[in-house]
Design goal:
single chain, 250 residues, alpha/beta, Rossmann fold, seven-stranded mixed sheet
Length: 250
């Protein structure tokens, strides 16, 4: 299905060709590649090949997103993975929020992935799950984007959230949550101590349920949900680069 809305400026997918180690970078629910571009650029500067796909229905208009399914979002990330596989021997995956959910999905589905870096990944958001069970919901709810501690930064995200899309992310979270035990690759899990979108307990649950022997849970003390654009951005960049370097050699 052709998307009828133009892609917003700043929401375009990004690709950087570098060495034979690839980093797949995924943005979150109702968000855009803008939230992950600083990480992508930092990884490219370090020499890596980087792909930041735009999830279908995102970065255009919320009516566009309303027509997509979680399978569409999986396919968007898988197409980025295919692009990297054509160029790289080793691939890592990272993502924010639902991008973190998709990161977990990729590790569950493609055991050859070398390592993952979920950032405030979503596997259980009770407010979303309960909302989908209510009768007579409006077609759209308030926006969830731009949960950022730094007042000078704004996330490029939709101003409304389609209820149909909430139902899709709830199904995706259920699917991923049930298969966490399938993950065996090294994992660096970032969690903001204060997050107004995804309960921080999600990351603790991920840490406990994945089967990886090498895993670390890193607390972010100075960022809200969109930590990749917040005060802890450099910490995420530095620790993830160290993670990639450490495990690409194993």
């Amino acid at each position: 299905m052709k998307e009828k809305y133009p892609v917003l400026k700043g929401a375009e997918p990004f690709y950087f060709e570098g060495n034979n180690i690839g980093i797949l970078v995924s943005h979150g629910f109702t968000g855009t590649t803008q939230s992950m571009r600083p990480l992508g650029e930092a990884y490219a500067k370090a020499g890596y090949t980087v792909c930041g796909p735009r999830l279908k229905g995102h970065g255009t208009h919320y009516e566009d997103m309303e027509q997509t399914t979680y399978e569409d979002w999986i396919r968007s990330v898988e197409s980025g993975y295919e692009w990297l596989k054509e160029r790289c021997d080793t691939i890592f995956v990272t993502g924010l929020s639902m991008g973190g959910t998709l990161t977990l999905y990729m590790a569950e589905t493609y055991p050859e992935i070398k390592g993952i870096v979920p950032i405030n990944a979503a596997i259980d958001i009770p407010t979303m799950a309960s909302a989908t069970n209510l009768e007579d919901l409006p077609r759209y709810l308030d926006a969830i984007g731009s949960d950022i501690k730094n007042p000078d930064v704004k996330e490029l995200a939709y101003e409304k959230t389609p209820v149909a899309s909430i139902r899709q992310i709830v199904m995706l979270m259920e699917k991923v949550r049930a298969d966490l035990h399938k993950i065996t690759c090294p994992a660096l899990i970032f969690v903001s101590e204060e997050d107004h979108v995804v309960p921080p307990s999600n990351s603790q649950h991920i840490y406990e349920k994945i089967s990886s022997s090498e895993k670390e849970l890193v607390s972010l003390k100075n960022s809200y949900h969109v930590a990749t654009l917040d005060y802890d951005q450099q910490k995420i960049v530095d620790l993830s680069l160290r993670f990639f370097e450490m495990y690409s050699e194993k």
